[in-house]
Recover the amino acids of this structure.
């Protein structure tokens, strides 16, 4: 990129940040958007149109980045609403709860505390991911990722502890033994 263009963009960093922060209401989000815009500028090499100044061009790029940000946020919100609605409509299945491997409760304490807690709240208590996220002070996306990782970690523990029974979902667990060792009914 042309050094005078780079200088103009660096010199206006605070103005760009204030512009974004005013529109998104969060300094951290504004910094994230600005950083991504700088990266995009470096990747594209600065596609300035003839007669357009670097600062005006960059503001146009920032406006486009804001539109993209709000589109993503709206899509994430719709997905979380659908998930919450489905969880509320379906609710926990009492029959399934009764048949789930008894070893699960014994293995939870062996997981990372935040994994055990989110599994307890979402899968065992039937609470929604957005609700648990709010109470934990994390984003719903972060809670969703944490729940996924917690389920994967629990699955590995169940497979180690229960063997074949766990590979088939532990729905017919008959072991009832603390710490595992499921025996599939004959």
């Amino acid at each position: 990129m042309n050094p005078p263009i780079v200088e103009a963009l660096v010199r206006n960093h605070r103005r760009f940040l204030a512009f974004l922060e005013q529109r998104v209401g969060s300094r951290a989000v504004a910094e994230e958007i600005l950083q991504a815009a700088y990266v995009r500028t470096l990747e594209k090499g600065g596609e300035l149109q003839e007669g357009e100044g670097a600062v005006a061009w960059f503001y146009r790029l920032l406006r486009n980045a804001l539109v993209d940000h709000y589109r993503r946020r709206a899509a994430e919100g719709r997905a979380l609403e659908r998930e919450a609605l489905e969880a509320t409509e379906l609710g926990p299945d009492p029959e399934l709860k009764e048949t789930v491997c008894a070893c699960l409760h014994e293995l939870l304490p062996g997981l990372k505390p935040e994994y055990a807690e989110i599994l307890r709240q979402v899968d065992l208590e039937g609470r929604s991911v957005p609700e648990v996220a709010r109470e934990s002070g994390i984003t719903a996306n972060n809670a969703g990722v944490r729940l996924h990782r917690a389920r994967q970690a629990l699955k590995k523990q169940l497979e180690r502890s229960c063997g074949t029974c766990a590979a088939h979902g532990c729905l017919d667990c008959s072991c009832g033994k603390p710490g595992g060792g499921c025996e599939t009914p004959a």
